[in-house]
Amino acid sequence: MPIRKLRERLGMTMFELADRMGVSVATVSRWETGEAVPVTTRLGALADVLHCTADELLGREPPTAPS
Fold first, then answer.
1. Range list of β-strands (E), 1-67
2. Distance CA 58, CA 67 (A)
3. Nearest-angstrom CA–CA distance, 64 and 21
4. How is the chain split among helix, strand and coil, in percent rounded to 5?
5. Residue 58 vs residue 11, higher pLDDT
6. Domain locations in the chain?
7. How sure is the predictor about 1, in pLDDT bands with cuts at 50, 70 and 90?
8. What fold, for 3-57?
9. Residue 24 and residue 63: Cα distance in Å, rounded?
10. pTM > 0.90: yes or no
11. DSSP readout, 9-31?
């Protein structure tokens, strides 16, 4: 999950992301290291804060149209 890259792209600290998400810095750290995954109910809010899609957070490429 590229949360760290997305956060750093915005110049945001772990503390700032934690504050905006209402979680601890330790939680953000676990998300970034892959020790934990944000719960589904937080994915939309996290995508909004990081200006990305939920697919990007999950490391998914958008599906391609059938040929």
1. none
2. 25
3. 32
4. 55, 0, 45
5. 11
6. 3-57
7. low
8. 434 Repressor (Amino-terminal Domain) (1.10.260)
9. 34
10. no
11. HTT--HHHHHHHHTS-HHHHHHH
